[in-house]
Design the sequence.
């Protein structure tokens, strides 16, 4: 235990300080400061709500559609923000990498954790909204932490991979921008899955992010949400997103560890 | 590893792959697949270090010297673990500071206080530990009033003071120091020297990279000279410092460069063909050959000696010395021999010869830094001239 503590003493100290710095720097110079990290998703939510729920009337079949939409947007934002910001995290710290030897994974982890803290704050806002809107909070909310861990692991794994890849190939950020835009529409965030032909809906649900968003909606907003379980009628199907995540994680860690020795020379 | 060895570097090679065209995008990766010939040549290996082996003992103050680009900073980075050797091994016994520069991670957008905690974390100090040291750090840096200002509003001297004040808190057995003395004013440099003395007293192992032979002689017990990626010598600080100085005087490339630089101007009616310095312990003789490219009435030739800080030490010309040059015919050559007693202090000197018309205004050939020379003495005076004082002490009581 003491050995473990000694080994991780330095990374933990560094991690705390990097997360703090990240928070301090993020909204420096802006008048509303930290409030922006809450205002941004809310503003986005208002726009999408007006367009998709009011104009297109997409969510008529779903009770508490605004909350349903907000949950999706907040979760997706977290995923998109972590992965997109991670790309430049190693290259952006090139000045430090070239002057000091420290565990590189701390940088990526710090970015991921500061976004996670943001996500928690956003979750508090959602809970507030739910109370105002009178959505019943059921016991199934206990599933949420587990699902958030799943999302955290997936985002972190992709972050490790993308940040290490970007050191060598500077096209990564453009490619990821396109991919994440496409994935936004291929994930049931704005539209209920019932609007999608069933065979495609089943395919879309295999995406781990779709699975997580739908499960969380199912747990907190309405049991009418279509989930991976409800579309395949078997729990075994969860092996697909879970093994995607496990595979991503293993490969990413392997790649990152192999490359991290050479970051200082290549950034 | 032998008990008292702190750092053992064995057969270390370091190659950098230098891409011909930086292959950093997917496109070039794919074009490389189709164009095989291009793919093979997409990089060439640059050998930054070749077959480096040496040991540093515990408690040693070890200097690494070498010219720019010789590979010494790369070596230091490999010892710090920032770079990985391509081949060979580096073994470290004891706790090593992981940084090679002051103020790593300093962020201009954060306040002095916040930077202390961030930099402290990089050095391995928890918040609590920094809390305990905070006052000392600030006092030493003399920045009490500025700690809540953003770092970008600090002067560079203030930043260095803060960084240095942080660096000396690092608790380690082995320290790596790369050229810190190059920055900061005299006051700051004195603090550095005091810190080095403390390190020596505490028997810390220090690896010290510097261009200042003075500092190498002063602090290092041993030193190593690296030139063109290879070890040229390891030995006493004095012998390595001398070897290093010789590199500059013997390198033919340096001499070839000099006529090309823009330190030389004039109408070239008379030109300086060559200039040479001969040193003995008692005299300095400068031999100069000049050539008239057109006939000219009695020009004036002069020389000036500067030290390597650019300070003018002495100089003279043929008019002052009342040895006027004759009228010169076109194509005529003269050899001038300037002689002076060797009373210069230890250090490097520059000779600027010049030839002007008899009116003392029109320049025929003015050549700054035509040549350089070194005076090496067994002692150093902090003044430009070392005429060799003698001291007679009178009235001293003798006991016994």
Sequence:
């Amino acid at each position: 235990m003491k050995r473990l503590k000694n080994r991780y003493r330095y990374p933990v100290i560094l991690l705390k300080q990097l997360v703090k710095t990240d928070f301090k720097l993020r909204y420096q110079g802006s008048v509303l400061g930290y409030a922006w990290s809450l205002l941004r998703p809310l503003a986005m939510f208002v726009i999408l709500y007006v367009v998709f729920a009011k104009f297109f009337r997409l969510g008529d079949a779903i009770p508490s559609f605004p909350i349903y939409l907000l949950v999706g947007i907040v979760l997706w934002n977290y995923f998109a923000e972590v992965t997109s910001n991670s790309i430049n995290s190693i290259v952006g710290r090139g000045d430090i990498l070239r002057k000091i030897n420290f565990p590189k994974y701390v940088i990526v982890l710090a970015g991921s954790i500061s976004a996670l803290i943001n996500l928690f704050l956003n979750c508090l806002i959602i809970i507030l909204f739910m109370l105002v809107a009178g959505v019943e909070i059921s016991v199934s909310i206990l599933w949420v932490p587990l699902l958030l861990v799943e999302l955290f692991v997936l985002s972190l794994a992709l972050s490790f991979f993308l940040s290490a890849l970007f050191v060598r190939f500077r096209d990564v950020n453009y490619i990821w921008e396109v991919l994440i835009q496409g994935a936004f529409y291929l994930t049931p965030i704005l539209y209920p899955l019932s609007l999608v032909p069933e065979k495609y809906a089943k395919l879309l649900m295999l995406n781990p992010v779709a699975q997580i968003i739908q499960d969380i909606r199912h747990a907190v907003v309405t049991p009418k949400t279509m989930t991976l379980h409800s579309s395949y009628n078997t729990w075994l199907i969860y092996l697909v997103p879970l093994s995607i995540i496990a595979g991503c994680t293993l490969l990413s860690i392997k790649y990152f560890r192999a490359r991290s020795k050479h970051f200082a020379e290549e950034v | 590893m032998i008990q008292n060895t702190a750092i053992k570097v064995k057969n270390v090679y370091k190659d950098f792959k230098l891409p011909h065209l930086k292959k950093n995008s997917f496109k070039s990766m794919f074009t490389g697949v189709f164009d095989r010939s291009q793919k093979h040549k997409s990089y060439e290996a640059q050998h930054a270090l070749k077959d480096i082996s040496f040991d540093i003992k515990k408690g040693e103050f070890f200097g690494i010297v070498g010219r720019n680009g010789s590979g010494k900073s790369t070596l230091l980075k490999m010892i710090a673990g920032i770079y990985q050797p391509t081949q060979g091994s580096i073994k470290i016994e004891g706790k090593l500071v992981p940084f090679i520069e002051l103020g790593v991670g300093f962020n201009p957008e954060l306040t002095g206080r916040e930077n202390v905690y961030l930099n402290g974390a990089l050095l391995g100090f928890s918040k609590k530990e920094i809390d305990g040291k905070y006052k000392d750090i600030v006092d030493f840096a003399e920045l009490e009033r500025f700690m809540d200002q953003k770092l970008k509003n600090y002067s560079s001297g203030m930043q260095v003071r803060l960084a240095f004040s942080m660096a000396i808190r690092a608790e380690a057995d082995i320290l790596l120091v790369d050229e810190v003395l190059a920055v900061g004013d005299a006051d700051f440099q004195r603090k550095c020297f005091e810190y080095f003395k403390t390190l020596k007293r505490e028997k810390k192992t220090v690896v010290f990279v510097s261009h200042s032979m003075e500092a190498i002689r002063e602090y290092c017990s041993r030193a190593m000279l690296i030139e063109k990626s290879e070890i040229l010598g390891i030995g006493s600080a004095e012998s390595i410092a001398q070897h290093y100085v010789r590199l500059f005087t013997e390198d033919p490339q340096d001499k070839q460069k000099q006529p090309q630089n823009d330190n030389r101007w004039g109408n070239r009616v008379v030109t300086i063909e060559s200039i040479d310095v001969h040193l003995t312990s008692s005299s300095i003789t400068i031999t100069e050959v000049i050539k008239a490219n057109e006939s000219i009435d009695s020009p004036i030739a002069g020389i000036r000696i500067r030290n390597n800080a650019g300070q003018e030490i002495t100089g003279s010309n043929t008019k002052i010395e009342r040895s006027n040059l004759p009228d010169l015919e076109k194509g005529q050559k003269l050899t001038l021999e300037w002689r002076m007693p060797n009373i210069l202090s230890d250090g490097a000197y520059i000779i600027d010869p010049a030839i002007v018309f008899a009116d003392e205004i029109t320049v025929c050939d003015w050549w700054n830094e035509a040549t350089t020379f070194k005076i090496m003495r067994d002692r150093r005076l902090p003044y430009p001239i070392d005429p060799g004082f003698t001291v007679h002490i009178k009235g001293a009581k003798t006991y016994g």
Q: What stands out?
A: Chain A touches chain B through 28 residues (CB under 8 Å).
